[in-house]
Automatic annotation (TrEMBL):
Pfam families: Aldedh. PROSITE patterns: ALDEHYDE_DEHYDR_GLU (PS00687). This is Aldehyde dehydrogenase. Keywords: Carotenoid biosynthesis, NAD, Oxidoreductase. SUPFAM superfamilies: ALDH-like. It comes from the Eukaryota. GO terms for biological process: aldehyde metabolic process; carotenoid biosynthetic process. Belongs to the aldehyde dehydrogenase family. One of its GO terms (molecular function) is aldehyde dehydrogenase (NAD+) activity. One of its GO terms (cellular component) is cytoplasm.
Amino acid sequence: MATSKAAIPPFEVTPLDVISAVSSNARAAFRSHKTKDLQWRLNQLRKLYWALEDYKPAYLAALKQDLNKPGFESVFTEIDWVKNDCMFMIDNLETFAKTEKLKSPHVPTTYSMLNFRIKKEPLGAVLIIGPYNFPVQLLLAPLVGAIGAGCTAVIKPSELTPASAMVMKEMMESRLDRDAFAVVNGGIPETTALMEEKWDKVMFTGSPQVGSIIARKAAETLTPVCLELGGKNPAFVTKKANLALAARRLMWGKCLNAGQVCMNHNYVLVDKDVVDTFIEFLKIAYKDNFPNGAKASSDLARIVNVRHFNRIKKMLDETKGKIVMGGEVDESELYIEPTAVLVDSIDDPMMQEEIFGPIFSIYPVDTLDQALNIAHEVHKTPLSLMAFGDKSETSRILHEMTSGGASINDSYFHGAVNTVPFGGVGDSGWGAYRGKASFDNFTHLRTVCETPTWMDRFLRVRYMPYDWSEYRF
Ligand code: NAD
């Protein structure tokens, strides 16, 4: 029976002295070769799917406890999200895992008689470290890729969302293969201890600061890493944009999970001729979303803890910008009102730091050139980018500014479909997952060449002494 709301156990940190054993279990399970069997992988994916269904009430309660996450968001961005990932992987696994045969290699005729193939091999025992903002999705969606690829895995949820972490531990231990998959709970000491172990890949989702610590540690043992990081994502709103639509969609992006979304826009570069109208539309969107005020609504999550609440509040206190919408904060509820701040300098804290909360900074610009220059200066390789304008303007923005992913005339909806690759570029992330990329993320493409024994006479040319006299000098 899955944990009920009342029964979510108190947070229990995994003892440091068992972490080495957890990691060697995962390595031993991989060495048993059972994960290489496709049926075994499919069974684990089916078990994960049904476990998520059975544990839905427990996750809903845990996510409410951890982040006051609205039930709708918990289902669609966490629980059903991962269930859809499971279905996608189950439906496609056989195709993804199939050894590819090279039909007609572009090589001399003799070579075409060799049997070249590309085997899809699981990388091995992998470590998956997650952040707090989507405590189910961002641990288990990578896990779907690891299971599909045939890896064993240890996952480390964020200690900032302890209820979700405990539900996950119980679910994993009771439903999945216990040798192959494990959960380690804890914070910095436990993650540090996990990073002392040898892994075949580490997948980290979190802040760039910690991502850099993980990458440096992994480099000591040349362990490959996939990093899914954050950044300072721009949104562009030109004069020709549909302003009402831009305001409504950007407002939605800022309010989902109370703005604690890595792809969220950190700042909006708005043509100065339309900035007042844009702000008016934002206020309308606010009212439409929260007719009785955001604080009274059960559809706005809360900030994860006092430290993050104070971090965001400090930005509001220190900005030189003008608050043009919202601005209320209440520490007792970890509530931050959806807020818009008009700024005029890239040195403003609103522009310099990742906000990761329900606050807009709006920067009026004279031209699209100026907007692009500011975006480049603030962060030249953001995780996402959102462009509102006419076709030629949005094409120009896409052409002149890179990002991990991008949405045209929308908030970060490019990240909403889990069958396309998701990842950063440059310092917003290394590697990608979701869809087939989830499988590839944990797969080694191993080229195998099988040379028929009878072929040696055709290969005579490669043996010494070479008889191509024109090349002998
Ligand atoms: P974080 O980097 O503080 O923590 C992530 C994980 O690292 C946690 O499990 C934590 O326990 C561990 N950790 C923290 N400090 C550590 C240290 N010094 N050594 C070893 N491990 C450590 O991130 P967060 O605050 O939980 O999440 C917010 C950040 O994550 C934001 O920057 C956001 O943009 C980013 N994020 C990125 C994505 C993405 O897919 N690109 C998704 C969600 C969040």
